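User: For my dataset I need records formatted as: sequence, then structure tokens, nothing else. Please produce one.
Assistant:
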Amino acid sequence: MLTRVQKIYFGMARLGPSTMLVMLDLASALFYFSIQSLPAIYTGSAIALSYLSIMLSELTFGNLSDRMRSKRWGRRKPFIMAGAPLMATSFLLVFSPHLFLAEGNVLGLFFYATVTMSLFKVFYGMTMTPFQSWMPELTEPEERPAVSSWQNVANFIGFVVGTFGTSLLAALAVGWGLPSVILYMIFGFIVIQLLGFTPSLIGLHKEGKFIPNPSITKDLRVALKDRNYVGWLVAQGLLSVGISTVIRTTFPYINDYLSFSMTEFIIFGAELLSVVFVFFIIYQYTIRMKGKRFTLQLSMLLAVISLPFTLVITTTTAAFILLAFAGAGVAGYYLFPYIVYADFAHKNEIMTGEGRAGFYTSFPSIPLNGMQALSAFLWGFIFALPEVVPVPGEIATVVSQGYLFWGPIAALFIFLSVLVLFKVDIDPDFERLKAEHSTEGLEIGS
């Protein structure tokens, strides 16, 4: 059992990484496509390849951390200690192509974007997969909502700061180079990230059961016998295509197509943060009353209903309404994975007596990041469509047809996820499982 203070600093350790990941997700297309003028196909391909990198990283380091034995540092800590500073360094490099390349070098910029974003994702997986795998080992089921709540607080603050950072980038960055304000802000994120892990590395020591005979194929067979786990992987994969498209497109959409002013950027940022905060509270209430599946489906339907209106929206007022509903869907997407995978890991430990938290945290990276890579490739093709759509209020300026079609395409994938979730149970009854398997143990013993 963790003390209240331990729950807080373990949960809040996600602040720095969440800030970095949110800003990378929101700003990668904005920075390279809109500001640095890297063609859409190249931008989408670079982002897609970075998702393939994190897929391999999370699978590798999650399973290595399950099987590593270190008397001094344990299983999870060495990966966190090595990965955190490398993640911080690579985040800085993502936004610093001007330090290494000449302006106008399109092919060089593509390779630079691919390498730096991929390195960030590799080191993110190296750090955060072992860290998140620690949660089922440190906590009992009744503690996880409290720990997850602090993680959600960290994620929300990270979302706030990452959104603010992206808004600042959109407002201040013009052409080649990086304004000093943005550079100082990035260094601030790095400090927050490195300091955030320190209390957990010093103060937490408990770890779960060691698996003496490592076998990924055995782990895979065990996990895939759970129909609900497989169904969740399918649902989350489909959902990630739609939500990733929303996250990646929002800032280019309001910057390039709707031509938001500085004031409108500030209003949008405040609106988005308010919506996410309010719906975090609403969803935590509906989880308690109706369960996780009902709540997730509700949040996704808000996005499904609103996103097709990108076909007709031409005013900032209508865009504010659209993006508020889309933000409600994004809030649901960020709220659930930590709880769901910790629950599946704990369910498996009850049923098998073995600890596979690293596997349950890392294996989903294959379908999840594979689908997100598909989303990024698809984004590249959507925004490579002919530039024939007039920018509202600026008839002489035209942009890609992708600025109209991205909403309905994202909504389709999110709706498919809602349908799959009708067949998936993500609300396990731990007391019933414990009773069943303790009874089985007694029967075997007798």
